[in-house]
Design goal:
alpha+beta; Arc Repressor Mutant, subunit A; Alpha-Beta Plaits; 4-stranded antiparallel β-sheet; Transcrip_reg_TACO1-like_dom3; YebC-like
């Protein structure tokens, strides 16, 4: 992960995501619904539900929306069902792209994703064509502003908490964990008094692809089109943007 900063990408896309907040809440409601339906409505015993609830709170989703999604799952009939699907493909300059979708209509979603790729300089690949280029990791960001902790101290703290790696920049500490250790590390750091600016399970590219300015614009258009789709939950790329 050396040299890779997710924080730069997160900050760069924050304003665009703020503009789509209503759609984000809709997608999060669906994820909460699925997690609650599969593993129960109690986040204390349903780790998947707790993770998506944390994700919703980080997006400033109102508690009423979260509660409604959980209640809907508790009263849902057996005929209501969503499938989790992963699409893999390429963008400009061969950038690897992973698309996670949650859908009640596979044909609709597949068509929409294919059109987004083909109309924006990309192409869909076969299953497994790019997923091997990413690693599933827990990711935690702690902003350094107002924090009187040096890099060595933070490194000791995150290792004691069970993390794998620490990347440091002028603005932020970026912490990476194994997926199974993410919750423990996050909770430990919060108990130690740290304020977490970001905490999520994510896909980290093993190698980054540099793009020319026009290629960056084309890739951003592709990402935007994918994220506009109601069925698409997350999009990950190997672009260095």
């Amino acid at each position: 992960m050396a040299g890779h900063s997710k924080w730069k990408n997160i900050q760069g896309r924050k304003n665009a995501q703020d503009a789509k907040r209503g759609k984000i809440f809709q997608k999060l409601s669906r994820e909460i619904y699925m997690a609650a339906k599969a593993g129960g409505a109690d986040p204390a015993t349903n780790a998947a539900l707790r993770l998506v609830m944390d994700k919703a709170k980080a997006a400033n989703m109102p508690n009423d929306n979260i509660d409604r999604a959980i209640k809907k799952a508790s009263s849902a009939g057996e005929n209501e069902h969503y499938d989790e699907i992963t699409y893999e493909g390429y963008g400009p300059a061969g950038v690897a792209i992973l698309v996670y979708a949650l859908t009640d209509n596979r044909n609709r979603t597949a068509t929409n994703v294919r059109v987004a790729f083909t109309r924006n300089g990309g192409s869909l690949g076969e299953t497994g064509s790019v997923s091997y280029m990413f690693d599933r990791k827990g990711y935690i960001a702690i902003e350094r502003s107002g924090l009187s902790v040096d890099e060595d101290t933070m490194f000791e703290n995150v290792l004691e908490a069970g993390a794998e790696d620490l990347e440091t920049s002028e603005d932020v500490f970026e912490i990476y964990t194994a997926p199974e250790d993410f919750t423990t590390v996050r909770d430990t750091l919060e108990k130690d008094g740290y304020t977490l600016a970001q905490a999520e399970l994510t896909m980290v590219p093993q190698t980054l692809v540099e793009l020319e300015e026009d290629q960056q614009e084309q890739l951003q258009m592709l990402i935007d089109k994918l994220e506009e789709d109601d069925d698409v939950s997350e999009v990950f790329t190997s672009a260095d943007m």
